[in-house]
Amino acid sequence: MKTINNPTSKFELLREKSILAILDGDTDFGTLKINGEDSGIKISMPYLSGPTLCDISNKFGLPVSYGWNGGAQSRWAYLDDLLEHCIQNNRVSDLLSYLFSKGQFVDKLRGNNPDTIEYAYAQIVNDVIGQINGALYFGGNELVKIGNAFIIRKIGSTVTIAAPAVKTIDRAYISDISDRAMKDVVDGNYDSAITKSRTLLEEVFIYAIEKKGETPSESGEIGKLYGQVKALYNMHQSKDVDKRINGLLSGLEKILSAIAEMRNKGSDSHGVGAKRITIADHHARLFVNSAMTMAEFVLSVCEKQTQS
Fold first, then answer.
1. How confident is the model over 223-277, as pLDDT tens digits?
2. Burial of 186 (0-12, 13-18, 19+ CB in 10 A)
3. Would you state the torsion angle of the CA atoms of residues 199, 110, 46, 214, taken in this order, to the nearest 10 degrees?
4. Which end of the chain is more exposed for a tag (fewer CB within 10 A), N or C?
5. Domain locations in the chain?
6. Which of 164, 48, 160 is nearest to 98 (CA)?
7. The pairing of beta strand 141-146 with beta strand 149-154
8. Residue 294 CA to chain centroid, in angstroms?
């Protein structure tokens, strides 16, 4: 890692090795207590392997290949190179939004009930940012999340963002999550595949809502989020639209309903109970592909209306 004497961006401060070790999941801060009991969940960022860091680097426009047969860098070095690239291209906030997004915590938090997942995710993000700020404190700086944007500012100063920074969702992102979900299917982790499918749709819906300058429903219910998308983008079935198109829209809504229901009864976001159902390989594949199709459709509608 290079030493920057006169940094052009405050985000250079994140290139300290101790902070990189936090961001790549090397450093943990004990286990999370829930209702006074040890949950066994480590207070840390998801572990980012070397190949995973290379994949993320390519996603953010930095071509890099993992040295499987020798020559691979240390994980912190891959992340440092990625941070430097994002600083140069003004994309550090996007990178941090990606790393801290709920979708990145799926594997880390799988097997817990929804309340535990929501609490653990929020608490871990809060604690990790706090630990990063502990490292930044003596320089008089702090990392702050404002809406979906991350900034580094002088402690106690006021910074406003004129327009809400919306997390970037594109087809490459959709494809990446879908590929990871399908890998879960191949590995027999059907529950995790369905959870990723649901998370993908949730993030796309939130993105579409925020692109309209609106605030997503705080309930976290995927049906309510989709309801907002429908209303904002006028996606309701209409007698003036070809009945075959209306039929497709109706089918998409049934897919959404099934994914939400499957997640409630069959995915790894809930403990095993009387209503838990068995998921077959072909069913999991259908859910992953259906979620990807719907995510791409909503993204296309969003892009058409927000770019026109």
1. 888 888 988 988 776 666 677 777 777 887 887 777 767 655 444 443 443 344 5
2. exposed
3. 30
4. C
5. 10-154, 171-307
6. 48
7. antiparallel
8. 17
For tokens 């590929």, what's the residue? 179
**Total length of the chain:** 308
pLDDT over threshold 80, residue 115: yes
**Per-residue DSSP letters for 180-228?**
HHHHHHHTT-HHHHHHHHHHHHHHHHHHHHHHTT-PPPTT--HHHHHHH
**Rounded to two decimals, what is the model's pTM?**
0.52
CATH of 171-307, one of 1.10.10, 1.20.120, 2.60.40, 2.60.120: 1.20.120
d(CA 245, CA 237): 8
